[in-house]
Amino acid sequence: MLKPGAAAETKPELDRATDGDIEAIVNGTHGDPFAVLGLQQSGKGFLARCFVPHAETVTAHTLEGKACGQLLRRNDTGFFEGKLTIRKRQPIRLHASNAGGEWWLTDPYSFGPVLGPMDDYFISEGSHLRLFDKLGAHLISHEGVDGVHFAVWAPNAHRVSVVGDFNDWDGRRHPMRLRQDTGIWEIFIPDIGPGHPYKFELIGARGVRLPLKADPYAIRSELRPATASVTDRPQAHEWADEKHRAHWKAADHRREPISIYEVHAGSWQLRDDGTFLSWDEMADRLIPYTAEMGFTHIEFLPISEHPYDPSWGYQTTGLYAPSARFGDPDGFARFVDGAHRAGIGVILDWVPAHFPVDEHGLAHFDGTALYEHADPRQGFHPDWNTAIYNFGRREVVSFLVNNALFWAEKYHVDGLRVDAVASMLYLDYSRKEGEWIPNEFGGRENLESVRFLQKMNVAVYGAHPGVMTIAEESTSWPKVSQPVHEGGLGFGFKWNMGFMHDTLEYLSKEPVHRKHHHNEITFGLLYAFSENFVLPLSHDEVVHGKGTLLSKMAGDDWQKFATLRAYYAFMWGYPGKKLLFMGQEFAQRAEWSEARALDWNLLDFAPHRGVKQLVRDLNYLYRSRPALHARDCEPEGFEWLIADDAANSVFAWLRKAPGGAPIAVISSFTPVLRDNYRVPLPLAGKWREIFNSDALEYGGSGKGNSGMVAARQVDGGGAAATLLLPPLATIMLEFVAD
């Protein structure tokens, strides 16, 4: 019996979803699907809501298989809701059916988030150094269920969904949860594994549905022309390169021999049918070849995913994914490990300077200028028609810094050669007056980019001291390869573009005119130790109508070959680490094209075999003699012997280092045999001729000094030797005894 004034108890009604919520869910426009779908508190219990297109009935079950609720259809397109009998929050499975059959699915909206508050904190602070383990797509076990966790940064989107072959590319099926503090959207999708193509479908802040976007953090992508990202297992390769990595971790790179073979993976060699080699096929061919040739490192033009072959990889849309052109990502890991076990390091060209504007990429990712600047005077690159990263956003800086760390950690790469650094440093790079915006002090220096490069180098060298970074920087920006704490950019090395330009310009002139351009060779020694330099004869010198290194040499065919041999020996004796683009080691005649393999048939001809043998011998000589490498970056390792003989176009210097005998390098760049040529030397005694680019085995005339010369004491101190200088040749003499 009720007490006077007491209301009768009524059974609580189901907390029904509003018509507006249902309409937004079934139309794929709801900005907060986790507030509607999945398990929702209802009084002291729970109800479930789901959107299962094409279903006519849905029953909820626990993971153990126990039925816990019949869900009622509220909308003909497949929106269901109903009370559950469970009393604690837990994942549920859904049994759906229609006239055509029945199926099971685990409800993704019944799971809690994967990312946590500490992730939010470090991401917001810009100090998270493991974003590649958090963002993107990762196969995990979450709350007892296997599946894939997806996460993407899109702070200005109204709604973000994962679409793929697992949901019929339907953006209504898997809209994601927004983490308000970071602008990151995430969802755990159970019961899917590796090998699924996927993208993100975004609705911009103004309700505009954007082109489908590939995952910026994807670790695997489809083969072009397809552009989807692909779910993949964590790398499973078992590494066996401990000795290699321990050596470089303990080494001072400046005092080690570093001779780099620059390679475009898509055109070094091809299969007989013209298709790309896989990483395993490349390992079987390229690693033994590089080892036999004596190079210490292979440097690949960018191998991260890119849609357009003629970009050579420099317009990348998938910074975290090895290109599908060459097989699966584990194949690249096997290649690096195999190279390491052969004693060869692997360097990657890395492109943080710009990115292409392909609609599936980063451009206007969430409907706004997210990764790039909104103002084209800051955010668009006129040279390459690409977008420029906004280095003023900590999320963009974190994306790029984490990418550098990713390649070092996940793939054990030995170095990153950073492309187009000059374009990053100057706000007016390739721009006319009025086409650029000054920095906060009114200058042309891109201070945000400087801070990014410094942060990247500090992070890489701090986490991976065995890894080196190399700047392609063509200006006189100071301290590129000096430590950040000393005001530098923090790179390990810088490309010496001046060396390449001046020496090639000099050697393109007829020998009779070279005496008038003597300073083009000597000038480089005025700044040779201002940075830690790599001497690059790179891909940029053999494309776009520039010919090949052989074709750049003046004279007839014999003179071209002789000059090229002398030039290589000159370079290997010059202070600085070495880099040579593929094909130039055997004097490729045709200009390089990414669309065809190198002309390996040229090795059927003696002059080309001779150049290849010469490069091989130079590499082994350089590596075996401390004088030629241990003071590459220090002025104490260099001393001019002859700098002023412009009339004869002769240059001579001494290379020296503790622990090794001094070596004299003498280059003669005229086609004249010079007998009784006097060269000053620091020590009296015997000097062995350890190298002669004019040797018969290299294709030369065989002129030389019978393997040994004697240096005699001269008045005033020091010594001198009388030599025979072969035509268009470089010789090296090593002190052996007094």
UniProtKB/TrEMBL annotation:
Q: Does the keyword Ribosomal protein apply?
A: no
Q: Which residues form the Glycosyl hydrolase family 13 catalytic domain?
A: 262-629
For this protein, what is any one GO molecular function term? 1,4-alpha-glucan branching enzyme activity
Its domain of life reads Bacteria
Q: Which UniProt keywords apply?
A: Carbohydrate metabolism, Glycogen biosynthesis, Glycogen metabolism, Glycosyltransferase, Transferase
Matching entries from InterPro entries are given as: A-amylase/branching_C, Branching_enzy, GH, GH13_cat_dom, GlgB, GlgB_N, GlgB_N_E_set_prok, Glyco_hydro_13_N
List, alphabetically, the Gene3D superfamilies matched: Glycosidases, Golgi alpha-mannosidase II, Immunoglobulins
Catalyses which reaction? Transfers a segment of a (1->4)-alpha-D-glucan chain to a primary hydroxy group in a similar glucan chain
The annotated active site, in chain numbering, is 419 (nucleophile), 472 (proton donor)
Pathway(s) this gene product operates in, as recorded in its UniProt entry: Glycan biosynthesis; glycogen biosynthesis
CDD domains, per the entry: AmyAc_Glg_BE, E_set_GBE_prok_N
Specify the enzyme's EC class, one word. Answer: transferase
Keyword Glycosyltransferase found: yes
Name the EC number(s): 2.4.1.18
Family statement drawn from the similarity comment of this UniProt entry: Belongs to the glycosyl hydrolase 13 family. GlgB subfamily.
**Which purpose does this protein serve, as stated in its record?**
Catalyzes the formation of the alpha-1,6-glucosidic linkages in glycogen by scission of a 1,4-alpha-linked oligosaccharide from growing alpha-1,4-glucan chains and the subsequent attachment of the oligosaccharide to the alpha-1,6 position.
Instruction: Spell out the subunit comment.
Output: Monomer.
Q: What is this protein called?
A: 1,4-alpha-glucan branching enzyme GlgB
- Origin species, per record, is Aminobacter niigataensis
